[in-house]
Specification:
Elements lengths: L1 H18 L9 E7 L1 H5 L3 E8 L3 E13 L6 H5 L2 E16 L4 E16 L11 E16 L12 E15 L5 E5 L6 E5 L10 E10 L1
Antiparallel strand pairs: 1-2, 1-10, 2-3, 3-4, 4-5, 5-6, 6-7, 7-10, 8-9
Length: about 210
């Protein structure tokens, strides 16, 4: 965990250093972006709409059909042989543009989890439980336009990298726990409401590609 935290802090410093070298503002515009991590690692999808003013960023993002399995399941959930299907992870953000390319956002998100056993995912009679969580947190976003000096349609192609911390503030589980009889272990198990981020933490890293209008 210390190694992961060190990597996160290094990324934050890199983004800040790069961003502070850029100009302060540019004009108002919309951007439509699609997540890269979701289809590559989570077998799902993510779409994001940003509206940028010279000072603020307004954001809506929606991820759907995300799967957590194998090495992406850790801790007690791995010991309990669980598989997570996330039908949606959705919400809004409001950000302040620190520079032309760097912004810091406050974000409110809602997530739905469905629990299955790892060997029988999506079998209707093997659904263990489903629950919802709410997270509040912050995200640091870095915008890069590789063809910004072109005078054609390529100019508006956008790459958006992000480092986010989404703290779980509530869940629909009583006391944020599920107590159930596990078919595989043969024991009564306790499942703590999951975090939405990497290795069951609040930390999230993503890269999106899209187009500015």
């Amino acid at each position: 965990m210390k190694k992961v935290q060190s990597m996160m802090m290094g990324l934050v410093l890199l983004l800040l250093t790069s961003g502070l070298m850029a100009q302060k503002t540019d004009g108002n515009h919309f951007s439509l972006l699609f997540g890269v991590i979701q289809p590559l690692l989570l077998e799902g999808w993510n779409v994001e709409v940003d509206y940028r003013t010279p000072k603020l960023v307004f954001n809506y993002s929606h991820g759907w059909s995300l799967d957590l399995r194998d090495s992406r399941v850790v801790g007690d959930a791995k010991d309990q042989h669980l598989f997570f299907h996330i039908p949606y992870s959705t919400g809004f953000g409001l950000g302040y543009r620190l520079t032309k390319v760097l912004d810091l956002r406050f974000e409110a998100k809602w997530h739905k989890f469905r629990l299955y056993y790892e060997d029988e995912a999506f079998a209707p009679d093997e659904l263990i439980a489903e629950y919802r969580t709410t997270t509040l947190g912050f995200g640091l976003y870095y915008l890069y336009r590789p063809f910004r000096n072109k005078e054609n349609a390529l100019k508006r192609i956008s790459l958006l990298s992000s480092l986010r911390y989404w703290h779980r503030v509530s869940s629909s589980l009583e006391k944020d726990q599920l107590i159930y009889r596990n078919r595989i272990t043969g024991q009564q198990e306790v499942h703590e409401a999951a975090n939405i981020g990497i290795a069951n933490t609040p930390w999230i890293v993503n890269l999106s590609i899209g187009y500015a209008f």
